[in-house]
Amino acid sequence: MGELKTIRYEAADGIGWLWLNRPDRLNGMTNLMLHETAVTLREVAADESVRVLVLTGEGRGFCPGADLKHYTGDSDGTPEVALEDDTDFYVPVLLHEMPQVTIAAVNGACAGAGLGWAAGADLRVAARSANFNTAFLNVGVAGDMGGPWSLTHLLGAAKARELYFLGEKFSASDALGFGFVSKVWDDDVFRAEVAELAAKLAGAAPLALRGMKANFSVAERVGYQDFIDHETTQHHRITSSDDCKEAFRAFVEKRAPKFVGR
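Given the sequence above, the corresponding structure tokens read:
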């Protein structure tokens, strides 16, 4: 990866950590952040050593959407770039379909395009102080980053429309209540809890983890019988692997399995 100016990426022990890194602007989105995130996610998707990808924000914010000050002339030193094409807008699709299990760890304000990115992840967890909003009508736009698709799939059409048309803020507790996030942790333990969750997932059998992610991606695109055909093919392939045989033996012997990824 080249030099990154608006995000930060590190990987260790099967976990990739991608921080949105404009903390002085609560990680408000710019064209450069959009481009750097898209490029980085594509590179991570091709890295088989990474099993889990955590997307989070540096500092007090996750991402409140577009940095409107930046787009109205206050660049704060962040270079403005023109997007070469619209494929950079595929960030939520990458989060949704890349082979790794993706976690949006929402540590603060999450609105607009930032909400769309979080909605694209496999799992969303939040710090108790986090807050959410679609926010688009407040700034005179219809929206971007796939929210009407992802929120409709996650929450149902009625709730998705409510969140978009009314544009009311909602808390982490609200998000937990209607199922947008699966866990809420107190701020002082949030990072540690996210790390523990990511480590638990990264410790799963690699073939099974990737196969499960692929199953969900395929399930959203095909009919029921076609999905069963896909799932059965995957099942035969994975159950014949060394890792699956090791998992069976470890379960019977009441010990932790040792996976090798084949």
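The chain has a mean pLDDT of 92. Try to locate this feature in the token string yourself.
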